[in-house]
């Protein structure tokens, strides 16, 4: 089945927040934000702005009836700054006017006096000054101290991976509409409708049932709208609470770039020990996470870094620690991979450093340490149904790795100004929210009198085609054609208390709930059919909109069956709840079984570096990926390719830059580069691994949103391999992204 949104997307007919037909009395908002990264607010003069014709009201923390607090995990983030500002771009006030242009004009008329305080921009500096979001966390397995003493090779090093801008096509935004009796409807661009509802109710000082959040779809999210869509919705809601008029706020691109958090930069330190057989027997890592000025989702992201610190390798002795460092940057947040990529980059760097020191090909160390069945992760989970070796050896065989390596060696011998490089990147990525209570979902399914079906879930459609997969579940279970099924918007009134669409778990959680609801409805309809046909239940099935008896087509259509069920007063609506079984984690012991399953894969990346100019091309990325039993291979392949491109961008050209005063320098698309057609791989080939899948996944079709991003890490090491082929004096560094400027300097380093 094709993506059900494809037709309206390419015709420009799909609806987003900014496409909603607004009421005639709608007002428009713009945020006035801090022009300094850290300081005490001495005075703000709103008078000239307030007197501008067309300005309705300027809202500050003084107008909040409830609590001036939007923190999700930790209550450390005000909606609007009160006495101090903690990052450049922190919201201070919300200007509401008759038009957006007037609101922007008013923003220019506000003057502010700030007594500047010291600014921290890096995680290293934050750690030195003892500036943290919360207490550090550590995972351990075995005894690293003893293990290192028995190692034949011990290497230490440092890595850095920069942040990454989400750059969703649709910027943040919300349209708030007053309803009867003090209720408010928020049409929001959010991955977490319940989070928006909960935080809005807190700030307004009203119960949650007074706030309805509706999400049509997102023009991209990538984690950037999991938590950070909330403040903009809350601001519009505060304005509606006071003015009783609709308020719309869609951030422009520059405001969005300046005021929102990114992927977390990490400064990390590693120590790795190996024996003569290239077995990694000990590994230690310290991760310094640049959290920004408030917690946001940093504690959860830091935790996932620990969960993925050994990637797809078994290491018997592990000790890893992570510090969420508080700095004066916008609070950094979720981004595809959610801390996992940052952890994986460190161990891949450690392996590269060890290979260089020992004098062996990096892939020999990788291959010697791949996970096997029943190996233990550092967090206590036992690896089962492990597929990483299958993907690794399948990739080597199907893509003829040794032939590729020979061709690269020959090319490098015959070319002085161009060098090729290659790397292998295995992945093992856990699927579930690591906060166990979040692993649940609901679905509400209505069968209408004419046989058409309406489906509501907690899943937010944001380009990943989750609605298409939900439709496939309904179609498969009920045995009806896709034209009969409609996926409704994601709405907190129809489906309440939802987890965000994140962690690659959306299709699994919501799909399982849809499956349960449809199976309950099917059971009722089968009973009706048995009475109509005087047959037993085991003989009845529904296929292609018709009732079948023992595999033979009957005269009863789907519509006839539904009509009879109505006459018999059979319930044709079902609300199902699914909670992932088995998973658990004890944070007091840092041990448990947090993941429903893991996704595995291996990518072989080849690159060509122009050794005169420092520029490079990604020639091929060839992947064997563990899709399980894919329920929609077209959609899943698209997810692999999109995630891969995003991962390559993070590792190569996307460079977030703040100056020492905490001001974003990469603040426009002229100064922040994302992969385009010229920087994408020339060839991407993805082969599904032949596997039985996993019952914990919907229809055994494994999650696919985040894991392929980690394949992009391979691009870094392939480029480094090419640089080393040109400059034998180059000393390996692990400072991502590996931009053309860094490559050029590396090529001529002495």
Question: Can you offer a commentary on this structure?
Answer:
By secondary structure, this protein is an alpha+beta fold. Helix content is 29%, strand content 25%. It is built from 19 helices and 30 strands. The strands form seven sheets. An eight-stranded mixed β-sheet has the order 3-5-1-12-9-10-11-20, with helices on both faces. The protein has a six-stranded mixed β-sheet with strand order 7-15-14-13-8-30. Helix 14 (466-478) runs parallel beside helix 15 (506-533) and helix 15 (506-533) packs across helix 16. It starts with 5 loop residues before the first helix and ends with a helix. The mean pLDDT is 98.
Q: How would you summarize this macromolecular structure in one to three sentences?
A:
Helices cover 29% and strands 25% of the residues. Helix 6 crosses helix 7 and helix 14 runs parallel beside helix 15. It is α+β, with helices and mostly antiparallel strands and 750 residues long.
Compute the separation of the termini in Å. Answer: 56 Å
What fraction of residues sit in β-strands?
25-35%
Structural class: alpha+beta
Number of helices: 19
Largest sheet: 8 strands, mixed
Spatial strand arrangement across the major sheet: 3-5-1-12-9-10-11-20
Shape: globular
User: What fraction, in percent, of the residue positions are helical?
Assistant: 25-40%
Task: Write down the overall mean pLDDT.
Answer: 98
**Radius of gyration from the alpha-carbon trace, in angstroms:** 27 Å
Low-confidence stretches: none
Q: Give the beta-strand count.
A: 30
Q: Which quaternary structure do these chains form?
A: single chain
């Amino acid at each position: 089945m094709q993506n059900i949104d494809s037709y309206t997307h390419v015709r420009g007919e799909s609806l987003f927040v900014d496409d909603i037909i607004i009421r005639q009395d709608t007002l428009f908002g713009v945020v006035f934000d801090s022009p300094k990264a850290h300081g005490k607010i001495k005075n703000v003069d709103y008078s000239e702005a307030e007197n501008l014709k067309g300005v309705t009201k300027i809202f500050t923390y003084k107008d909040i009836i409830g609590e001036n607090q939007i923190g999700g995990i930790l209550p450390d983030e005000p909606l609007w700054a009160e006495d101090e500002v903690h990052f450049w771009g922190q919201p201070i006030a919300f200007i509401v006017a008759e038009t957006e242009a007037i609101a922007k004009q008013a923003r220019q008329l506000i003057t502010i006096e700030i007594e500047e305080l010291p600014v921290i921009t890096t995680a290293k500096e934050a750690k030195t000054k003892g500036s943290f979001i919360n207490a550090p966390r550590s995972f351990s397995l075995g005894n690293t101290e003893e293990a290192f003493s028995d190692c034949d090779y011990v290497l230490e090093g440092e890595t850095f991976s920069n942040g990454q801008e989400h750059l969703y096509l649709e910027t943040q935004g919300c349209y708030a509409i007053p309803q009867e009796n003090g209720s408010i409807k928020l049409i929001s661009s959010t991955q977490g409708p319940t989070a928006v509802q909960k935080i809005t109710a807190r700030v307004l000082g009203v119960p949650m049932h007074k706030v309805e959040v509706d999400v049509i779809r997102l023009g991209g999210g990538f984690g950037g709208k999991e938590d950070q869509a909330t403040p903009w919705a809350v601001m519009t809601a505060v304005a509606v609470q006071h003015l009783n008029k609709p308020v719309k706020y869609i951030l422009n691109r520059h405001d969005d770039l300046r005021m929102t958090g990114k992927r977390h930069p990490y400064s990390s330190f590693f120590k790795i020990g190996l024996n003569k057989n290239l077995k990694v027997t000990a590994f230690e890592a310290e991760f310094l996470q640049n959290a920004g000025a408030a917690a946001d989702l940093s504690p959860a992201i830091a935790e996932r870094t620990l969960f993925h610190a050994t990637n797809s390798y078994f290491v018997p002795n592990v000790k890893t620690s992570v510090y969420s460092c508080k700095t004066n940057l916008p609070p950094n947040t979720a981004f595809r991979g959610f801390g996992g990529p940052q952890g994986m980059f460190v161990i891949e760097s450690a392996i590269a450093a060890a290979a260089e020191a020992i004098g062996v090909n990096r892939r020999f160390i990788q291959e010697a340490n791949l996970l096997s069945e029943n190996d233990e992760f550092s967090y206590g989970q036992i690896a089962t149904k492990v597929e990483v070796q299958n993907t690794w050896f399948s990739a080597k065989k199907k893509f003829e790795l040794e032939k590729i390596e020979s061709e690269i060696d020959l090319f490098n011998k015959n070319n002085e100004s161009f060098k090729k490089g290659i790397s292998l990147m295995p992945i093992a990525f856990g699927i579930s929210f690591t906060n166990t209570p979040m692993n649940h979902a609901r679905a509400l399914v209505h069968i209408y009198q004419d046989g058409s079906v309406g489906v509501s879930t907690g899943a937010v459609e944001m380009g990943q085609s989750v609605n298409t997969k939900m439709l496939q579940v309904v179609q498969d279970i009920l045995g009806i054609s896709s034209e009969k099924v409609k996926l409704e918007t994601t709405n907190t009134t129809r489906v309440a208390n939802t987890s965000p669409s994140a962690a690659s778990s959306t299709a699994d959680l919501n799909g399982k709930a849809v499956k349960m609801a449809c199976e309950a409805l099917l059971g009722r309809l089968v009973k009706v059919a048995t009475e109509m046909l005087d047959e037993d239940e085991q003989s009845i099935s529904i296929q292609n909109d018709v009732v079948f008896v023992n595999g033979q087509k009957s005269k009863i259509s789907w519509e006839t069956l539904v009509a009879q069920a109505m006459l018999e007063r059979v319930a044709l609506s079902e609300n199902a709840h699914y909670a992932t079984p088995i998973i658990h984690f004890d944070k007091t012991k840092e041990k448990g079984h947090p993941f429903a399953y893991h996704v595995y894969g291996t990518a072989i990346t080849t690159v060509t570096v122009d050794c005169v100019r420092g520029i490079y091309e990604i020639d091929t990325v060839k992947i064997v990926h563990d899709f399980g039993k894919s329920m929609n291979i077209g959609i899943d392949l698209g997810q692999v390719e999109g995630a891969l491109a995003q991962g390559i961008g993070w590792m190569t050209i996307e460079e977030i830059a703040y100056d020492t005063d905490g001001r974003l320098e990469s603040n426009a698309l002229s100064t922040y580069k994302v992969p385009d057609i010229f920087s994408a791989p020339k060839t991407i080939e993805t082969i599904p691994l032949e596997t039985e899948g996993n019952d914990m996944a919907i229809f055994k079709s494994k999650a696919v949103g985040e894991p392929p991003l980690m394949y992009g890490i391979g691009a870094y090491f392939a480029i480094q391999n090419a640089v080393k082929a040109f400059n034998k004096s180059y000393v390996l560094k692990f400072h991502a992204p590996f931009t053309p400027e860094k490559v050029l300097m590396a090529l001529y380093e002495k």
